[in-house]
Write a structure and sequence with these properties.
By secondary structure, this protein is of the alpha+beta class. It has a domain of 140 residues: Sandwich (Jelly Rolls), CATH 2.60.120. Helices cover 46% and strands 24% of the residues. The strands form two sheets. Strands 2-1-10-5-8 form a five-stranded antiparallel beta sheet, with no helix packed on it. It has a five-stranded antiparallel beta sheet with strand order 3-4-9-6-7, covered by helices on one side. Helix 1 runs antiparallel to helix 2. The chain is rod-shaped and about 140 Å long. It comes from Mytilus galloprovincialis. Its main location: secreted. It is found in: Secreted.
Amino acid sequence: MFIKILWIIVYLATFLGIRADITLQQTRYEERLNLVEKVLMKQSNEIEELKMVVQTQKNEITQLKMTLSKVKRLQGIHDKSISVLRRLIMKSKIILESTPRENILLRKDNKVKSLEPNSEIKTGEVSINRASRLLNVPTSAPDIGTVAFYALMSHDELNPGPHHTIAFDLVKTNIHNSYNHFTGAFTAPIHGVYGFIYTLRMNCRNHGTFEIMKNDEVEGTIHVNVENGCSGQFSTGSIIVILNIGDTVYVRTHSTLTPSGLIQSNIHGGPYFAGWLIASL
């Protein structure tokens, strides 16, 4: 009988100990579960905050795109205005250069009229000059002579963006001074047929697309692709165009494609830009 009571006591003690241990483990699991819930809640809040940040950044990117679009439109207007101003300046220069000659003809015409008032043959030529001057239309092309230029890029152009005019700053030849090494643009001093050639170079494992422009019109495009190594760093393009007095020709990066890397120039070679008058019209 005593042994049975002893077994019962041992069994109860064991049962109560196991139950206490289970209760302790359950309490620990609940604490861990509460901790995990707190961590999950915190992460959820952080995710919501990140979503708000991402949305804010998307809105800012959209605003930046709109601003960039406006800037590009303004840049286009600015380029057109510069082109018009260049043509007006060149036109004024031609008019100023031709004024002394017309004054001499006018004085000769006055003398002819005073000596031979009935002469129609001699005064006819001067009348044409007067009419052309009043109508602002030249009777013949001005005697410009040779027009030619050749310029190099003396340094690297670091990370140029799209729609970027390239200035070839090291001028080797500039007959008639029609090329501006500050702006990189050639301005036609006479109506005629012109030839142009240009070469661009990119550094290794990069690429870029370039355009040669007549005023605001694309006349030619070249692509320099060195993404697979260092071979083929140079690309060359050439055009033949008809230019009016004051038209401009220049080289720029593509209007929408951004080059990667830099435009390279060193002792091994670099970009250049050249042009010449083939024939006056």
